[in-house]
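Running log. JK asked me to keep both predictions on one page so they can be read side by side. First protein, sequence followed by its tokens:
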Amino acid sequence: MSGSMVQVKTPDGAFGGYLSVPPQKGPGVVVIQEIFGVNTWVRTVCDMLSRAGYVALAPDLFWRMKPNVELHPFFPEDFKVALDYYGKFNVDNGMKDIQASISFLRSSQNCTGKVGTIGFCLGGTLSYLAATRTDSDANSSYYGVGIENLLGEAGQIKKPLQLHIAGADPYVPKDVLAKLESGLKGTPGVEILVYPGLDHGFARDTDPNHYNAEGTKLAHGRSLEMFKAALR
């Protein structure tokens, strides 16, 4: 396993990403950032996936605003800056960059061909959209915000999708969860997985205010099981 920075070329320009590669060829996974950029924690997620045998790439989705943004949620000033980037972020451009990242992995000599996504917070929403707008083979969305406003795209879902929902997430209250369950009911391959009592960001082990080890282990285990079935 090794990690390095790479460049992904697109018609709009090139952007950076952190790539973690396992010892043997494996399927690919695009790791989609939170509003804090490709920070230390995002890179550890890539490394975790590569230890499990996946070629993991975390693209810098804020590059059109400022390359190499790296912020941390437990610093108030960083949180304020992150919210500003979030407000300016163009989802359509972000999805183009995610598709470019998927294609980058497919063409990599280290990748066996199939590619999934895993995303958190902002990335959780984008991972849902990867299921509706890209050619990804499986998608795992952690506590995405605003997915209830995107349910009109659910008919485009053709590949496995997991939605990991924190039961005590203030951004995804019970009425929103009910909308998700109703709007996605009967959609083939979709699982809505609720983690009672856990907060938004529960999988972020660099954040002592939100991290839950047991919930993270369960969620990652479910993601890896889906990837094993869909990507290998």
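And the second, directly underneath as requested:
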Amino acid sequence: MSSQEITIKGPNGDFMGYMSAPDGGGPGVIVIQEIFGVNDWLRGVCDMLADQGYMALAPDLFWPIEPGVQLDATVESDFNKGLEIYGKFNVDKGVEDIQASINELRGREGCNGKVGTTGFCLGGVLTYLSATRTDADANAGYYGVGIEGLVGEAEKISKPTILHIADEDSFVPKEASDQVRQALQGHEMVTIHTYEGCDHGFARDTDTNHYDKEATELAHGRTFDLFKSALS
């Protein structure tokens, strides 16, 4: 396995991405950041995916505001800074940068041409929008915030998509989660999994207040099953 920072050429400018890949190449996965940037934890997710045989690329989506953001979710000042940067973030341009990252990964030596997306929190809703607005081959979003306001785009989802929902998400009211489930129920390309007793960030193992090992392993297993079937 090897890892490096690369330059991604996008429609709005060039930006950094952290890439981790197995020596023999494989399918691609775009790993979409939380509000904390391409930090050590997100890079660890890329490394985990590379260990599973995927070429994983985490694009720096906050680059137009502040390039190179790396914040610690467990530090209050960092958390507040992440919220501040997010308040300036252009979601539509962020999705364009995700498509540019998909294109970059597809064109890299070793990639088999199939690329999925996965993401957490902000990355969870951006994974949903990757399903509706990009040509990604599969998508797995974790506890996305604000999806209930975007369910009108669901008719554009044409590739298999999983949404992992935390039942006790402190950033997503139960009413909002119910809206998402009701709106997407019966969509042949969407599967929703709800994790009872879990809070927002349950897959972030650096946060002992929210991390749930059992739920994380279950969710990751479902994500890997999706990618194995859709990206191989």
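Observation for JK regarding the second prediction: Residues 40 and 70 are 7 Å apart (CA to CA).
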